[in-house]
Amino acid sequence: MDILVFGTYLVVGLSWLTIFVSRVLRRGGYKMGFFDEYKDEGGNGAFLSKAERDTLIDLGAPLRVVAISFEAENTFEGKSRPRYVVTFDVEGESRLWSFGVGDVESRDRLLAAMTDYLDRDGDIDSPVVMVTKEGRSQIIVPAE
Questions:
Q1: pLDDT by residue for the chain (144 residues), tens digit each?
Q2: Which run of H or of E encompasses 77?
Q3: Cβ proximity of 87 and 96 under 8 Å
Q4: For the chain, which residues make up each domain, given as ranges?
Q5: Cβ 113 vs Cβ 127: under 8 Å
Q6: b/e sequence 95-109, b meaning 16+ C-beta within 10 Å
């Protein structure tokens, strides 16, 4: 590279650095913005992935129900799609599994009753269940 070209790049780079530093100093220091702190964790977070759910179903794994919430305002693909979100204890970690309302009426009744049960005052035993598949439907049954 020619020394003249290198010198030009160096001067331009230093000019941009000078502009940035002067702006920071005028503002009273660099302030963290959203993207300085944001870290894309990827995945579903606490929600179980499809692969994890399929494995738990295939194994017939017993799952302790920790909590259940009903989300009436949930939307899926732009349409209203109420759902139950069940928090399960999976290997000592709280993980979420959502079940759409209206797909399986018996499951909806079970989750509504289980929600009432978990909301009771006093010392209650958390239900232990398994999720099975019948066709494309996910069915919640007592653990064996």
A1: 566 555 555 555 556 556 655 665 565 655 566 666 555 444 455 899 999 999 999 999 999 999 999 998 887 788 888 999 999 999 999 999 999 999 899 999 999 999 999 998 878 899 999 999 999 999 999 997
A2: none
A3: yes
A4: 3-37, 50-142
A5: no
A6: bbbbbebeebeebbe
Helix (H, G, I), strand (E, B) or coil at 52: helix
CA distance 56 to 1: 61
Q: How far is CA 90 from CA 38, 64, 81, 129, in A?
A: 28, 8, 26, 12
One-letter identity of residue 95? R
- Residue 124, burial from CB neighbour count under 10 angstroms (0-12, 13-18, 19+): exposed
Contact criterion met (CB below 8 Å) for 120 and 126: no
Separation of alpha carbons 98 and 82, rounded Å: 10
Q: Look up residue 127 and give its two tokens.
A: 């239900």
